[in-house]
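Appendix B, example 12.
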Amino acid sequence: MLFSVVLVVSGALVAGAAWGIYGKLPERLEGFLVALAGGALLLSVTSELIEPSIDMSSIFHAMLGVAAGAAVFTASDWLIKRKWGSDSGGGLLAAITLDGIPENLALGVALIGAGGLEVAALAGSILLSNLPEAAGGARDMGQGGSQGGGQGGGKSKGRIMLLWTATAILLSVAAIAGNLLLSGVGEGTLAVIRCFAAGAVVASLATEVFPKAFKEDHYMAGIATALGVILAFVLGSLGGG
């Protein structure tokens, strides 16, 4: 079950990259999809990671984990943008990797002792977010190459696909490692780790996902976010029986 879920979720990165390189997607539709995925992911990390962690440990430990995860992600994101810039191919790829590691780690940890349906909302939300993020990132890398002049200039479509495939593999390893290496830890420690991953995801939504969605789709991004919350709630209800 673990490998099947991870394969599908990480495979969405490769599919999204191919979509961004070889296909065409209207900017407003892309923004709508990004907001939809963001809303779903926001509810999923709350209901599948933070709330169970409060029950497993305490509200204090949960808040500590969320705050630490958000702080670490924000600092790392700032350093990446300062080093590579927000528009370069390397910066985009590093940002997606940084964004994806806590998501996939959270997925791997959530699967510990749980059936597939119980994490359907989280897995589905990550899959939805991977598709438009990878599509936009791969497209921007291709445009940077076609415009030339920059350090990332001259990248072929094949090389871009190879980079995204490698990223998908790296994120798959994060999910599998999170599941296998943390399966024996105590409930209190596991709760803090879950909240740490959740805090990083929440910070990435606030700094990366929702601003991008509003920029591309304007006020419809608000509707899309609400629809994403509803979608995650429905998936979670199915998983909870």
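The mean pLDDT is 83. The helical segments are 2-22, 27-56, 59-84, 89-110, 120-147, 157-181, 187-217, 220-239.
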